[in-house]
Specification:
It comes from Podospora bellae-mahoneyi. The protein is an alpha/beta fold and about 450 residues long. Helix content is about 35%, strand content about 20%. The strands form four sheets. The protein has a seven-stranded mixed β-sheet. It starts with 7 loop residues before the first strand and ends with a helix. The structure holds flavin-adenine dinucleotide.
Amino acid sequence: MGSTHHPLSIAIMGGGIAGLALAAALVKKPHLDIHVYEAVSAHSDVGAGLALHRNALAAMALLGPEVHQAYLDKAINIGEDAEAEMATDIFFACGPHANTGADQEPVAELGRAKGRKSVSRADLLAGLLGLVPGDKVSFGKRLTKIWEEEEEEGEGKVKFEFGDGTKGEADCVLGADGIHSVVRGYVVGEDHPARHPVNHDRWQVYRTVVATEDAIEAGVEERFTRTVPILLGPRGHVNCIPMNKGTRLSAGVAVRGAALGEKEVDGPGKGDNEGRRKELDVGLYKDYTPEARAIVELVARDTSASWAVGDHDNAPVYFKGRVAMLGDAAHASLPFAGNGAAQALEDAAVLDHLFERVKQPSQIEAALGAYDAVRRPRSQDVVGVARMLGRAYAFAERDIHEDPKKARVFFTQAGRFTNEADLTRQNEEAMAKMEDSVRGVSKNN
Ligand code: FAD
């Protein structure tokens, strides 16, 4: 593939995990001129703790050692021994197989890896932001409109407009603008049934972040403040993630069927939760184990951080012309597979790999087509796995909660699919598809 005299301009909409990780990698390529446009004026700490699985770490390593290091600098070891293998542990919080007692083993595990860590979303964003030069990121720029104009064959620019009335253009736009993505509306069409997020199972999530010592004082088992446990039960599953080098604990309860409506999807820190949030009724958890109840009671103390979660039905395509979407914009998933950020990072790794070879505007569509072909099936399967896990956590997926052996097989398979992908092969497949497509175009010309 040939080169061009001027750098290709790439506008990245959204400076979240997907947008900043991608920017941190692309900014190293001299043939690209990137700029990130982020809606908010500064990132706030919405108290989300991320426990990144093996595929997320592999994707960061592909994006560059400094991206991986930015994460390592901010993350905490989940276990006491930094080299020990750790997993997300699944327990039953009620029923005949309840197993949350201090001497009991988890029923299954998801995402085992050596030296596993957790990180607060705000810390990770700060680390990634530090890798992108300040003049390449504009805050307070909320994308409102996007359109493409063909000027000469293969030379048209993508145009866009922000909420403050300013406009811009680029050779390519990559939409990493989250679950309520504006770019998604452009790519799939505003009237498409998969345009907006949905909450088919009416999930309501309650989450609190407290000092770890306060959690222990409130009765939370010490071991649940140092690991990533998920305690399952029919009226809600309970989980904990250690944050901020072990000094704070993010604890949550997710209840299936508790949201106000199917279409209600807020996201943490979004929307006006006041006045319409639902209280978490601790009385419903009398048959849960004492260890699970202690966490429910801690979360119920303050339900101001409560929201309806959602995901996307499958988009038919992830790109249109020179515009593509990635991360939650393309495939928001329920948080139950712990793999949304990981999938966003896998997207970024593939795009970064492809754009190494994209030197002319006429090659952009081939790159976005290859990205779509490789990433859409896998990322949409992960959305499906997260839905299935959510039902399993609520004792509503077949009968697996009745048989710990079946549960172990089920969770192990789901964990392997999301976390143990061969990402180098994924990148290579995408590159081969792009090269085929570019060859096909030049043969036809
Ligand atoms: P976001 O992080 O949402 O970023 C989108 C960015 O775009 C934001 O900064 C936003 O302000 C900006 N934006 C929005 N609209 C516009 C616009 N119009 N113009 C410009 N900018 C815009 N994933 C894991 O892998 N592991 C976990 O353990 C895990 N735990 C989770 C726990 C919870 C409670 C939740 C809710 C999610 C969890 N996830 C987890 C999922 C993960 O947080 C998301 O998948 C990930 O943040 C997606 O990254 P993103 O960059 O695509 O979107």
